Amino acid sequence: MRDNIAAIIPALDSNRYYPEGDLVLFGDTTLLEWKISQVSGLIDRESIYIATPSEKIAELAQNCGVKTIKRSQNTQSMEWIKECAKSVKDEIILWACVTSPFVSEGDYRQMLETFFTL
């Protein structure tokens, strides 16, 4: 796609919906691994970041060949979003939420193409 794009994927190992959080199974993979696979079709893995306070998720990120941004757990979302954005050197950040598994690689591609043509 372009060289100056990074993806940030926020992830938790538990949340109010599932005890497994973003590691809950989605078919034969986890929601987090599914989201990583969707964005890795568009963005180099060295520009994909998992934003998490979880060591378990940080280990999974490393096994998937993507970077981790250690974010605060008990701060307001706007604060840790700013923290995460400051950690990325790329000019454009695609925020890809694990909780939207049906936003496909094609959807992200179309969003970025539209963004770059405006």
Could you walk me through the main structural features you see in this protein, from its secondary elements to its overall organization?
This protein has a four-stranded parallel β-sheet, with helices on one face. The mean pLDDT is 92. It has 118 residues and is of the alpha/beta class. It has helices spanning 31-40, 55-63, 77-86, 105-117; strands spanning 5-10, 25-26, 29-30, 48-52, 67-70, 92-95. The two termini are 16 Å apart. Strand 4 (48-52), helix 2 (55-63) and strand 5 (67-70) form a beta-alpha-beta unit.
What's this model, at a glance?
With 118 residues, this protein is of the alpha/beta class. It has helices spanning 31-40, 55-63, 77-86, 105-117; strands spanning 5-10, 25-26, 29-30, 48-52, 67-70, 92-95. Strands 5-4-1-6 form a four-stranded parallel sheet, covered by helices on one side.
